[in-house]
Amino acid sequence: NTGSGRSSVASSIAPKHKTGSVPKYLKARQAKWAEDAAQLEAAIPDPDCPPGHVKLNDEERVNQLGQMTTKHADLLQDLHRLPVSSDTRRVVLKRQEIEGLLVWVEQEIRKYSRQKVFVP
Fold it and tell me: What is the DSSP string of 28-84?
């Protein structure tokens, strides 16, 4: 007799609750906890980052890499357009200038090809 009395009391106290479902307030708390944990993780500085630098996000890194590869291709085209047999002062200086820029662009490509790029 007492067993049936308990079930009727329990059903009258919480008729809105579905058995096996998580209440809304708990879902909201869990979402807030996950958000707080993500913010804490994002706030932790990268141990590889040198002092005074920040990590470049992937979108900017890929954009810079694309610009550098385009510039590299343009410089190679300019170098190939120079006459091979002519060794005038202008041609020699232009070749040296292009080769210097190529070296710089190749270093930048190597830098931006890494997974983590830190800029001052």
Answer: HHHHHHHHHHHHHHHHSPPTTPPTT-EEPPHHHHHHHHHHHHHHHHHHHHHHHHS-S
Q: 119 by DSSP, 3-state: which?
A: strand
Sequence letter at residue 83: P
Query: Rounded CA gap, 46 and 54, in Å?
Result: 9
Q: Considering only CA atoms, which of 77, 49, 65 is closest in space to residue 108?
A: 65
Q: What is the pLDDT of residues 34-46, one digit of tens each?
A: 998 888 877 666 6
**pLDDT tens for residues 49-99?**
777 777 778 888 889 899 999 999 999 999 888 888 878 888 889 989 999
Instruction: Give the DSSP letter of residue 88.
Output: -
**Is-contact 16 84, C-beta < 8 A?**
no
**Other residues' Cβ atoms within 10 Å of the Cβ of residue 68:** 20
